Task: structure prediction
Amino acid sequence: MKDTALLADTRAELAPAGKLRPAMNLSNALFTWKNAAGELEGVSVDLMRELGSRLGVPVEFVLFETPGDVADASESGRWDVAILAIEPARAQKIAFSPAITEIEATYAVHTDSTLRSVDKVDEAGVRIVAPVKAGYELYLTRMLKNATLIRTKNFRESIDCFNERRADALAGLKPALLESMDKLPDARLIDGKFMTVNHGLGTPRDRGVAAAYLKAFVDDINASGFVAGSIARHGVKGLSAVK
Result:
């Protein structure tokens, strides 16, 4: 009876509309993408369907263009759970589970740049471009001491800014940078990483029962290898499961 009551309380917070509404960030193709039929696929889809199955509720995906859009809507009641980079700025409004994945973040620089390693980028006069409210942009906002950070609406605009030489370094997730090299004819990746981005499941901060359930859910899927299996099944490169 206790477990039944707890599950009912969890559903009331995590699926208040009678269905689980995951926020799907379409700008991070490591987690989510559309197939030829226009249907969502990916690690996020697998996780949200598993979560819905355990709760015993249907899943209705809510689409967003950027992670910043997801975070900004955390108090709107539009979504119940999301996969986002775990960041202190976001944690003011979103309760995060333990990390499920990790991804290196680094820089692309121009081929004629004198910059060779990440520890040399934070210097006066260096201009770094990054999409506003991306997990790594929030990190750079906190950590940069000398370089100038240029914020764009999305990664595509960051690429344009870099290609037009309005920036000296393009910040991004390493897999996304590697995949975009054909759009960066005058670029090379720099040695090292400036951070490791950890993603977790988040729910609006006022949902304490839901947050506790998500922590237990993530502990279980991390231990079972569920995330690693999903990454391998989809052939995602550059995304690693937390062990």
Remarks:
- The longest strand covers residues 94-110.
- Residues 130 and 151 are 5 Å apart (CA to CA).
